[in-house]
Automatic annotation (TrEMBL):
<dbReference type="InterPro" id="IPR036508">
    <property type="entry name" value="Chitin-bd_dom_sf"/>
</dbReference>
<dbReference type="InterPro" id="IPR002557">
    <property type="entry name" value="Chitin-bd_dom"/>
</dbReference>
<keyword id="KW-0732">Signal</keyword>
<dbReference type="InterPro" id="IPR001223">
    <property type="entry name" value="Glyco_hydro18_cat"/>
</dbReference>
<keyword id="KW-0146">Chitin degradation</keyword>
<feature type="domain" description="GH18">
    <location>
        <begin position="24"/>
        <end position="395"/>
    </location>
</feature>
<keyword id="KW-1015">Disulfide bond</keyword>
<feature type="domain" description="Chitin-binding type-2">
    <location>
        <begin position="412"/>
        <end position="466"/>
    </location>
</feature>
<dbReference type="InterPro" id="IPR029070">
    <property type="entry name" value="Chitinase_insertion_sf"/>
</dbReference>
<feature type="signal peptide">
    <location>
        <begin position="1"/>
        <end position="22"/>
    </location>
</feature>
<dbReference type="GO" id="GO:0006032">
    <property type="term" value="P:chitin catabolic process"/>
</dbReference>
<keyword id="KW-0326">Glycosidase</keyword>
<keyword id="KW-0624">Polysaccharide degradation</keyword>
<protein>
    <recommendedName>
        <fullName>chitinase</fullName>
        <ecNumber>3.2.1.14</ecNumber>
    </recommendedName>
</protein>
<dbReference type="InterPro" id="IPR001579">
    <property type="entry name" value="Glyco_hydro_18_chit_AS"/>
</dbReference>
<dbReference type="Pfam" id="PF00704">
    <property type="entry name" value="Glyco_hydro_18"/>
</dbReference>
<dbReference type="Pfam" id="PF01607">
    <property type="entry name" value="CBM_14"/>
</dbReference>
Length: 469
């Protein structure tokens, strides 16, 4: 590739990234461990609709003390040693929807803060992480990294230096990622009392393409009283300054007032609820005393947490009293001594109205496997994600197949297996087989389909028989 072409390629990549920043985003995390869940809770790559989200985030990968990225579950993620090849299947969704972007989430709650703190404090380890990230994205076909350090200067991190080191690290990552057209995002703490000790918000905002604000987990079984997981506004029981910060509106206003551009803020919407066991079943108001977490759901199997799919199935066979916390624009459900604060279609619509009114960059969900992805409770599968999509797209529903172009040439009559296949009559065209469905695509002008590497490539890199363009 000559110098002129290389420079043009860099310019095109920058243009693509600029457009990525400008569009409204629907960022969807996927908890990949859900493939091990029982029964109707088992969530595999095949359950992902590649048209519902603009960005899919594969959660999670770890970080090693030497700054390299760690694959946590090699059997699930890789194909080697008879593995399940989840990463490859995940990124193959872009063959069905070429507009889709995929990110690798590094970190998460279970990964802690200590190793992130150590890497961020050492210039050599930061460089190791950056180079490893670029190579990781290249090898596995990710479009970028979502850095989920939970949280700088907190937990087992370093309260004295993490805030500055985090900002420096992000700036260095972004500088290198721009050379390769890679996306850099991060999941961040939402409430002021937490975010204010972790982030230099103007610098963090400048370094990131977009910011996934985790506006949930406002209340949970770690407290001695019940509360909504993700209330839109403060309620009557919120008396102290910290309590008044524990809602979506206060969190977003804090980030905005601290220097974050509104178009970069992606509002987090939970597809799960937080549950409690009431100390006294007769006292079930918001803020009532509790004795610990609620009963675990049948799929997530974690006390204190219940996916929307778990709860909506319970409603088909069990009697729960549903209450509205009007001031907070939230819902909670009570059955005997069990109390659950949750989101449904109505509250998701409230939050999408908020996203649009505040002119934020979009919405993020944690996480796809907790929606009614099988359509057990509703006539439409993925009802909560579809609600977000509809709000973001003026009431439209997502396409069910990839857009195709009319042709009188060869089209495969049937799929013998999933994958990408060349058109024998044109090196520009290729076909995607997915779950028995056939989709036709054409490479962008100036590129040809490279069967060996399964991408659109420069003509000089492609063996095109008879020069059939």
């Amino acid at each position: 590739m000559n110098y002129f072409v290389a420079q043009l390629f860099v310019i095109l990549l920058a243009f693509v990234i600029t457009n990525i920043c400008a569009e409204k985003k629907i960022v969807c995390y996927v908890g990949t461990w859900a493939v091990y869940r029982p029964g109707r809770g088992r969530f595999d790559i095949d359950h992902i609709d590649p048209f519902l989200c603009t960005h899919l985030v594969y959660a999670f990968f770890g970080i090693n003390i030497d700054g390299s990225i760690r694959i946590i579950d090699p059997y699930l993620d890789l194909e080697e040693n008879w593995g399940r090849g989840h990463i490859k299947r995940f990124n193959a969704l872009k063959s069905v929807n070429p507009s889709l972007k995929t990110l690798a989430a590094v970190g998460g709650w279970n990964e802690g803060s200590r190793k992130f703190s150590a890497v961020a404090a050492n210039p050599d380890l930061r460089r190791r992480f950056i180079s490893d990230s670029v190579e990781f994205c290249r090898i596995h076909s990710f479009d970028g990294i979502d850095l989920d350090w939970e949280y700088p200067a907190q937990r087992d991190g370093d309260a004295n230096i993490d805030m500055v080191n985090h900002a420096v690290w992000l700036e260095e990552i972004r500088h290198e990622f721009d050379r390769y057209g890679l996306i850099l995002s991060a999941a961040v703490a939402s409430a002021e009392f937490s975010a204010s000790v972790s982030y230099i918000i103007p610098r963090v905002s400048a370094a990131l393409h977009f910011i996934n604000v985790m506006t949930y987990d406002m209340h949970g079984a770690w407290e001695d009283h019940c509360g909504l997981n993700a209330p839109l506004y403060a309620g009557p029981a919120d008396i102290t300054e910290v309590q008044k910060q524990m809602n979506v509106n206060a969190s977003i206003h804090y980030w905005l007032s601290s220097g974050a551009p509104k178009e970069k803020l992606i509002l987090g919407i939970p597809l799960y609820g937080r549950s409690f066991t009431l100390a006294n079943a007769a006292n079930s108001f918001v803020g009532a005393p509790v004795n610990g977490p609620g009963t675990a759901g049948p799929y997530s199997r974690e006390p204190g947490v219940m996916g929307y799919n778990e709860f909506c199935e319970k409603l088909q066979t069990e009697q729960w009293a549903i209450h509205s916390s009007a001031e907070q624009f939230g819902l909670y459900a009570v059955q005997n001594n069990q109390w659950l604060g949750f989101d449904d279609v109505t509250t998701v619509k409230y939050k999408m109205d908020y996203v649009l009114q505040m002119e934020l960059g979009g919405a993020m969900v944690w996480s796809l496997e907790s929606d009614d992805f099988l359509g057990v409770c509703h006539s439409q599968s993925n009802i909560l994600i579809n609600t977000i999509y509809s709000a973001m797209n003026n009431g439209l529903t997502p396409p069910t197949t990839a857009a195709t172009t009319s042709t009188t040439g060869w089209v495969p009559s049937e799929c013998t297996g999933d994958g990408l296949f060349p058109d024998p009559d044109s090196c520009k065209k290729y076909y995607v087989c997915s779950n028995g469905h056939i989709f036709e695509f054409s490479c962008p002008d100036g590129l040809l389909f490279d069967q060996q590497n399964q991408i659109c490539n420069w003509p000089e890199m492609v063996d095109c028989e008879n020069n059939q363009i």
